[in-house]
């Protein structure tokens, strides 16, 4: 019989202890160092095991406090009373992914400002799934968090769990994306103004056939950036050719066909002289697609968010101020002050020197 991989052995050992009741909801599980010593394995092996358990919703990792069994697991009522961790000053932070630099910076700054405020952060990643988002909200509230900061999923819908937070006036701040026509606390970058500045810059350089390249979804950030794009054209009195808009389906954007999809679009629409991408991810993808063209076409690229590509201009968000404001507005609600507002954080257009 084939021996289990070491990370799998750790994962199954913890799962067995949870199922048997040896580890109860909200119980602390052994630290990474303790698991390394017990199983005689490396830190990365332990991290892999814990990441898999967290993905399955079995455990929650609390910044600065340790790792705990999720609070919403069913357990044997004959077992001893459950020790609660809800007395800890916890704040839940729900994000869709850790893949973008913007979100990485937001998490880093938010943890810093929460720590300065005497609070600990519990991080949950939804992987762009509204069902995981709902489960995360339930698990974190049952764990006893005193507030939530939520970065909604990319394909933003009126998730019932998000609506319930607003209706119940539970301390909560939506960051980057938000639910329109819902009275709540939101923080966004100036998506409309940033896109307007970017496209106005391209138009001032003589570009008129500008491609718009973005994920195919309807979240508020993408919508506002698209409106800013349109307004720049309107103010210049130039008609927009929307056949030059490339909305990449999410299943393609996340798969192996993304590059071919964008390359094909650029080849089919001749005469494009510039491209404005609405995300860091689509900027890097478009840059690769432009490089793959065989006709030596020159297309100027400009991105919303820094794609970290040489000589590419971009709209810079202020992640530090977004995080600072998020913690400030959350503390306001935790102090029983409820006055919903939408904070719009200024952005900058960064033009690399030639």
UniProtKB/TrEMBL annotation:
It comes from Paenibacillus cellulosilyticus. One of its GO terms (molecular function) is transcription cis-regulatory region binding. This is GntR family transcriptional regulator. The keyword Transcription regulation applies. Gene3D superfamilies: 3.40.50.2300, Winged helix-like DNA-binding domain superfamily/Winged helix DNA-binding domain. InterPro entries: LacI/GalR-like_sensor (IPR046335), Peripla_BP_I (IPR028082), Tscrpt_reg_HTH_GntR (IPR000524), WH-like_DNA-bd_sf (IPR036388), WH_DNA-bd_sf (IPR036390). The keyword Transcription applies. Keywords: DNA-binding, Transcription, Transcription regulation. Residues 4-72 form the HTH gntR-type domain.
